[in-house]
Structures are given as C-alpha cells and as structure tokens.
C-alpha cells in the first residue's frame, strides 16, 4: 500500500510543486498563517448540520448494503487505547484484525499505544494489516515538542507504519497557529516513511470554523490524513464534523493537487453509523476517497456489529452476540 | 460502475389503499359529482391512479349550503372544543403520515424523502399550531381594532379555498387549520392534478368525528374553482396559485364584500455575497430552486452572486448538482422527482428554450431521464441579464437563472426589480449586512443563510404581484376573523 501512494503522488508531483508555491508562503509567518486560515470561507452550523442530517437519511439496502459493509470492514482501524492494554490483549486484537471471521476482508490497520507497537508488528507480520501508533502525548498532547518528536521516532523505529498524532489544542485555541504548524512539521519529519494522521480533537475545537481551519493547517503542514478525535473526548466524530473535514480535503486537493485522507474516530459503533460515513464520503469528497487508502474508521466495537450485519445479510438471520468473538 | 452504487430503496405503495374512483366530500359524506369524472395520474409513470368526480356549480352550491348549515354550530362551540378537533386531526395526520406521504408522492411526483421529511411534519405542525390558537382568539390582538364593540374573535362564515398542486396537503393545512380554528367552515377545492390527499384528508375528518359540513372538499378543474369563488354565500376567498388566476379572482370578488387573500407567484432572488459560507450557500441554492422540482412559489429562481466569487461558487454548485439523484419519486434516495404534469413540463421547456435563444448559457449535469412520465433535468442558466425572460418570468420548475452584482446596493436594486415580491435569500457571514438587506428587500419572507424554511408560527405572503394577506402565525388569523 505505501508503494501505491508514492506512485500516485509521483504522477501529480509537477502539479503539486507549482500550485502549492502560492500556498507555500502562507506559513512564512504567524500573521500570514492566521490571515490565510481566517480567510477560508466560514461554515454555517445550521446549514452544515442540515446537510449532514439529509445525507443521514440515505437508505442503503440489499446489494449496496453488502458492498458497504465489506468496504467499511476494510477501512477499520481496529483500536485499543487503554491504560490496561497488554501484549496479550493486543495480540488477540491483531488476530481478529487479520481474519475478522468467515470470508470478511481484513481490516486496514490496528491502532495501539507506542509501547505495544512491537507486539502488534510481530503479530501482524505478513498479514497486510498495518500498524498505527498514537504518539505526541496522546490524548491531551500536553508535553514538550522534544518528547513528541522522540516518541514519534521511537514508534516508527519499533515498526509503526502510521502515526496518529494529536495537535496542541491549547495553542490552536489561543491563536498560536504557527506553533501547531511547526509541531506537525517536526513530527512529520520524524515519521520518515510512516504515514502521519493528524488528530484535530474536534470536540475541543468546538466551532465548525475551527474544524475547517485546523484541517487546512494540518494539511498545509504535511498531514497524510486528518482525523477527527482521540475517542477520549465527547462529542467525537459527528457526521457534520466528518463532512466538513471531507470538504476540506476535497478543496485542498483542488487547490494543491495533493490528496489527503480522512479518519473519523470515536463514537462510530454500529454498521448504520459506518454506512452513513461512507455516504458522507461518496457525496462530499467523492469516490476517490472510498478506499482504505484514503478513508479509515477508527473504532473498536464497530467491527463486531459489521460482522453481525454481514452475517444477517447472508443468512437472513441474526446470530446472538456470543457467536462473535470478543477480543 | 461506481464504487458505491445505491441499490433501489423504494417505499412500499401497499400502505395506500387507492380506490378506483372518488366522489365529492359534502356534509360529511362522499357523494357523486354531477360533472364528468376525470383521471388523476402518477406523473412519474403516467399511470392512472384513480377517477375523480367533477363538481359542477350545483355541487358547489350544495357544498356551500352544507358549510353554511354547519357554521352556526361550529362557530358556536367554545374555542377549546374546536381545538380538540384540530388536535385530533393533527394527531391522526401524524399517525397516518406514511400513508399520506406515499399518496402525495404518487399523485404529485415529489420525492418521498421530501413528502415524508418536509411536507407531512409541516402539515401536522400547522394543525397543532392553530389548534392552540382556537381558545385564545380574544388575546390575538385584533379586538382592539374593531368598531363593532365585539372582541375581534368572530369568524367570517363560509370560506371558499382554492389550492395549487405543488404542496397539495400543506396548502390544504395552511388554508383549513386557521379557518377552522377561528370558527369558519370551509369549501376547499384541491388542484385537478393532485386531488387525492385532500380526499384522504376528508376521511381523516370523518375519523376525527368532525361535525358534517365543517369541511367540504369539491374536486374539479378551473370551472369548479370559479364556482367556489363566485358563490354568493361565500364570505371569504383564499387562493394560492398563479398571478394570472389571482387577477381573475380579484376581479370576481371585487365589490362583493368577500374578504380575500391571495398567495401568488414569485421570482425570488437568492443573494450570495463573497463572504458567505460557500458550502452551505451551495446547499441553500440547491434547496432554493431544486426542492420540490422548483415547483415552489417562493423558490430562489434568481441567483444573484457577487462577481468576485462567481466562478468559485458556480464550480461548487455544478459539482454539487452532479450528485443530485433524479428518478423514481418513491425511492427513498431520490432528490429530484417528476414534473407534476405534461402542461407544466411544456411550460418549463418553452421558457428554457427561450432562455437559450435569448443568449443565456444553459447547463445541466449528466443525468438520465426516465422514458415514461414527465421529467426535466436540473438546469442552470449563466450569463443571464435582467432583461431575459427567464430572469423575469416565473418558470415554476428546476431552472436557475444566475445573475451577478458588484455591491450590496446593486444586489438590492436587482432583487427588487421584479413585479413579484414573495421571498428572498441573503448569504453572508456579516450580521449587520443581513439586517440592512432585509430592511431594503421588498419581499414577504427574507431568509438569511437558509432558504425554503417554513414554520407555522411564521407568517408567509407577498408584496406586489405576489399577492396580499398573510398565512401562518398570528397574522394568519386575521384573514379568517371579522376584524
């Protein structure tokens, strides 16, 4: 999969370098960055919520539902981020990630804390499931830039394919955009070949204008993915927030030629939630994003519900919860 | 094939029990009409849904006499008792909303999503709202303006009401709910292409034990409507429809002492400033002109966009129109349904062709039209001038004319430069500009950062050739009270 992305990027390389040159200057100073971010079109909360609600009424049935469930499974970043996590817990989850059950596709990645990356890498060798690690003082991000960078570097050294960093929300909310920008740039450098997902923690940014600005800030600083939430703050991945981030990646590609992925995380528990997310992608960013390469669902309990609905579609009956493993 | 193709998700028709033929609803009974029966069809397939009776002048007279007979008892009820009936009707509408929504979609061609999520909730809300007024009329504030010494809560008598085909049930609710709340009785004529939900409403009146004669439904074409309007024992005429027919009605009613409200055509300006929230403005434009296939008198049919964002906005609009789903109105994922009738389709075609021949640029997204039924693709005209007929005449279809402006003053000037004045929309993140614009725009409804939003508590009506009188809200009571 990394090979794939490099190839598509190479194809657009010329476009990127010329078009982004106008955007290159926006991070030349705090004032320029602020002017740019505050010059983005606003987001009207009422209108955005209304649009997301209408898309939530799409009725996905029969063959479309079956295809959507498999697509959603293949997009899951199966996650465990608890203080009580152990090597045993992570190994069990990795086994499920690689073979969720029946002929269901494997999930996209597992997402763990940095100290468990090695365990996950070992457990997933040869399965094609990627290993993502949170980093940079997850979930609050309240630590020094040096620690954030070295935590990232250590996770990458341990074999993480993807890094899920958090932004400094305190800096963002107090208007110190350059600090947020520079941290993302530094973490991106520490990532090397690993993909960088930037968590905005939209529940703490509060306004939709902030969500759009933070999305652009992260993309300008080099994010490969923008991610809604840590899962530790509520509200997390609401349909409106995911939709606004999808419009941001769509507009960013139109402006720069570079495609950035989106990962809603937190609160996506049912197949219905997952399918609503796919509808948002389909009708907002478009089908170019409808692959695990560009869209992920950060979740833990979601996978079993997807498997249950999958079996229901195939057999016409629901099996009890004990027929799906708890990992 | 697309990665994510939505499978058909049709709403079931089984919930609707269609009869082969329908009579008139007079004095609490379904009776035969004296005129020749006519067919009402599904505009999405041209299939005949049912035969419906035509009411002649004699039938209308019977209906008006029934309404007159019922008036004494109905207006004599304490307001709280009338309210009970209206609350009951509102609840039955909610209970039977799926049935009503499917029938509305079948007879009108509108997408089930809109019938289900917009029309029906508003219909029920309208009855709930006016039920609440029925026992509070003395406090509505009109009493102080009377000279006869009464409190201003007296009804007018028999109301003759003629409604259009674009929102058959919602227009019925707008007419019947305030009339009944105030103590009037009604004779209502639904449009000839969409009579079925009004007839189902008649059944709901019976289910609610509404006294016979309080609501009478007479079906038929223009002649039936003319008979309702012209009947000498009608005290109040309420009409929603075209400005052309509105003029005829105003002439017919002139000098008779009948009270009249008219809700007529529109050519609303939807004004987008360069500081608007672009994505939501695009949604508002789509909702403004493509909601209900553009069969909306207050549709935002003229897009006035500030020249500095014209290109960006039109690109975003065209991209968005590419995602609209046109097709089977009963499919739950359909955004754009069928045009209501062959006649309306012909009118939309004629005006659109005219737009092209007058030099405007025509654009539609790639979209496949079903082979049967009446269909028209979402259409956008750019490079439209104020003098083009597509910029001045009401098309009443999914056709948007795009004009530009440079300054707020120019936007106001162009927006007001129309014989109509029903609604307008303003899109800007600047609150002070919204207030300034709303003050200057000569339109009955001015929406800010939204469009086509309705609420029973909010009065609705027009300036100039868009009609007179207000429906909805406190002001909507005035039309049905002797003040």
Task: Summarize the structure in words.
The complex is a heterodimer of chains A (327) and B (483). With 327 residues, chain A is α/β, with parallel strands linked by helices. Chain A has helices at 2-24, 30-39, 45-55, 62-75, 87-98, 117-124, 145-157, 169-173, 177-191, 202-205, 208-220, 239-256, 271-285, 302-315; strands at 76-79, 109-112, 130-135, 162-166, 195-199, 225-227, 261-263, 297-299. Chain A has an eight-stranded parallel β-sheet with strand order 7-6-5-4-3-2-1-8. Helix content of chain A is 54%, strand content 10%. In chain A, helix 12 (239-256) packs parallel to helix 13. In chain A, helix 7 (145-157) links the parallel strand 3 and strand 4 (162-166). Chain B has 483 residues and is of the alpha/beta class. In chain B, helix 1 (57-76) packs across helix 7 (222-230), helix 3 packs across helix 4 (112-133) and helix 4 (112-133) runs parallel beside helix 5 (168-181). The longest helix of chain B has 22 residues, at 112-133. Chain B is globular and about 65 Å long. The interface between A and B is medium-sized, with 30 and 24 residues.
Widest sheet: strand ordering of chain B: 13-14-15-12-11-16-17
Beta-strand percentage range of chain A: 5-15%
Largest interface: A-B, 30 and 24 residues
**Portion of residues in helices of chain A?**
40-55%
How widely separated are the two ends of chain B? 64 Å
What is the overall pLDDT average of chain B?
Answer: 96
Could you give a quick summary of the protein structure above?
The complex is a heterodimer of chains A (327) and B (483). With 327 residues, chain A is of the alpha/beta class.
Write the layout of secondary structure elements.
The complex is a heterodimer of chains A (327) and B (483).
Chain A: H1 2-24, H2 30-39, H3 45-55, H4 62-75, E1 76-79, H5 87-98, E2 109-112, H6 117-124, E3 130-135, H7 145-157, E4 162-166, H8 169-173, H9 177-191, E5 195-199, H10 202-205, H11 208-220, E6 225-227, H12 239-256, E7 261-263, H13 271-285, E8 297-299, H14 302-315
Parallel strand pairs in A: 1-2, 1-8, 2-3, 3-4, 4-5, 5-6, 6-7
Helix pairs in contact in A: 3-12, 4-13, 4-14, 5-6, 7-9, 11-12, 12-13
Chain B: E1 21-22, E2 24-26, E3 29-31, E4 35-41, E5 48-54, H1 57-76, H2 79-95, H3 97-108, H4 112-133, E6 158-162, H5 168-181, E7 185-189, H6 196-207, E8 215-217, H7 222-230, E9 236-240, H8 243-253, E10 259-263, E11 269-272, H9 278-290, E12 302-306, H10 310-321, H11 342-357, E13 361-363, E14 379-382, H12 389-392, E15 399-405, H13 408-416, E16 423-427, H14 431-440, E17 445-448, E18 467-468, H15 475-478
Parallel strand pairs in B: 1-5, 6-7, 6-9, 7-8, 9-10, 11-12, 11-16, 12-15, 14-15, 16-17
Antiparallel strand pairs in B: 2-3, 4-5, 10-18, 13-14
């Amino acid at each position: 999969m990394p090979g794939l992305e490099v190839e598509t990027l190479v194809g657009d390389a010329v476009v990127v370098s010329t078009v982004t040159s106008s955007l290159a200057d926006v991070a030349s100073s705090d004032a320029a960055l602020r002017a740019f971010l505050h010059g983005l079109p606003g987001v009207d909360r009422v209108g955005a919520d209304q649009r997301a609600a209408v898309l939530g009424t799409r009725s996905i049935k029969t063959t479309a539902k079956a295809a959507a469930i498999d697509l959603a499974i293949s997009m899951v970043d199966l996650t465990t981020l608890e203080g009580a996590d152990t090597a045993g817990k992570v190994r069990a989850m990795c086994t499920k990630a690689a073979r969720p059950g029946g002929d269901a596709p494997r999930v996209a990645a597992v997402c763990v804390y940095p100290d468990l990356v090695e365990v996950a890498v070992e457990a997933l060798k040869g399965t094609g499931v990627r290993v993502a690690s949170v980093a940079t003082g997850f979930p609050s991000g309240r630590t020094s830039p040096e620690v954030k960078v070295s935590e990232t570097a250590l996770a990458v050294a341990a074999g993480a394919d993807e890094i899920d960093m958090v932004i400094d929300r305190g800096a963002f909310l107090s208007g110190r955009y350059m600090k947020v920008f520079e941290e993302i740039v530094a973490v991106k450098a520490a990532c090397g070949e690993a993909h960088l997902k930037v968590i905005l923690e939209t529940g703490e940014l509060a306004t939709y204008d902030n969500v759009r600005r933070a999305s652009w800030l992260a993309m300008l600083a080099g994010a490969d993915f923008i991610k809604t939430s840590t899962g530790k703050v509520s509200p997390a991945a609401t349909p409106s927030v995911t939709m606004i981030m999808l419009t941001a990646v769509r507009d960013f590609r139109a402006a720069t030629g570079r495609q950035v992925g989106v990962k809603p995380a937190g609160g996506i528990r049912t197949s219905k939630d997952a399918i609503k997310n796919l509808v948002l992608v389909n009708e907002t960013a478009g089908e170019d994003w409808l692959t695990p390469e560009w869209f992920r669902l950060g979740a833990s309990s979601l996978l079993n519900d997807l498997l249950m609905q999958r079996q229901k579609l195939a057999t016409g009956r629901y099996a009890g919860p004990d027929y799906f493993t708890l990992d | 094939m697309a990665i994510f193709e939505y499978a058909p998700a049709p709403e079931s028709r089984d919930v609707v029990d269609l009869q082969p033929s329908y009579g008139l609803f007079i004095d609490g009974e379904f009776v035969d009409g004296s005129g020749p029966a006519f067919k009402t069809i599904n505009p999405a397939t041209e299939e005949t849904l049912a035969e419906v009776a035509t009411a002649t002048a004699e039938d209308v007279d019977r209906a008006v006499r029934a309404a007159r007979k019922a008036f004494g008892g109905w207006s004599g009820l304490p307001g709280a008792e009338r309210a009970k009936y209206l609350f009951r009707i509102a609840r039955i509408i909610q209970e039977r909303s799926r049935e009503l929504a499917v029938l509305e979609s079948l007879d009108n061609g509108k997408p089930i999503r809109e019938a289900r999520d917009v029309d029906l909730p508003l219909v029920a809300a309208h009855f709930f709202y006016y039920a609440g007024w029925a026992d509070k009329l003395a406090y509505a504030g009109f009493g102080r303006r009377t000279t006869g010494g009464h409190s201003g809560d007296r009804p007018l008598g028999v109301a003759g009401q003629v409604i259009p085909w674009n929102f058959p049930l919602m227009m019925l609710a707008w007419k019947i709910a305030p009339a009944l709340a105030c103590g009037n009785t009604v004779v209502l004529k639904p449009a000839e292409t969409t009579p079925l939900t009004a007839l189902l409403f008649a059944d709901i009146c019976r289910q609610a034990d509404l006294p016979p004669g309080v609501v009478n439904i007479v079906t038929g074409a223009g002649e039936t409507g003319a008979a309702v309007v012209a009947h000498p024992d009608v005290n109040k005429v309420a009409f929603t429809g075209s400005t052309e027919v509105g003029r005829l009605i105003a002439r017919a009613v002139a000098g008779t002492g009948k009270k009249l409200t008219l809700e007529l055509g529109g050519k609303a300006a939807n004004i987008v400033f360069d500081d608007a929230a672009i994505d939501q403005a695009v949604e508002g434009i789509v909702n403004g002109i493509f909601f209900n296939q553009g069969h909306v008198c207050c549709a935002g049919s003229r897009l006035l966009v500030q020249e500095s964002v014209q290109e960006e906005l039109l690109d975003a609009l065209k991209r968005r129109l590419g995602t609209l789903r046109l097709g089977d109105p009963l499919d739950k994922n359909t955004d754009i349904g069928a045009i209501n009738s062959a006649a309306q389709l012909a009118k939309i075609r004629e005006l659109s062709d005219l737009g092209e021949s007058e030099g405007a640029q025509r654009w539609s997204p790639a979209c496949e039209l079903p082979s049967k039924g009446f269909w028209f693709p979402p259409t956008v005209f750019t490079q439209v001038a104020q003098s083009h007929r597509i910029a001045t005449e009401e098309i009443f279809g999914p056709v948007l004319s795009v004009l530009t402006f440079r300054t707020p003053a120019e936007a106001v000037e162009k927006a007001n430069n129309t014989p109509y004045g029903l609604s307008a929309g303003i899109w800007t993140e600047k609150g002070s500009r919204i207030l300034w614009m709303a003050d200057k725009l000569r339109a009955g409804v001015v929406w800010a950062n939204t469009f086509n939003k309705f609420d029973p508590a909010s009065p609705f009506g027009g300036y100039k050739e868009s009609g007179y009188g207000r429906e909805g809200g406190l002001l909507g009571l005035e039309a049905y009270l002797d003040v």
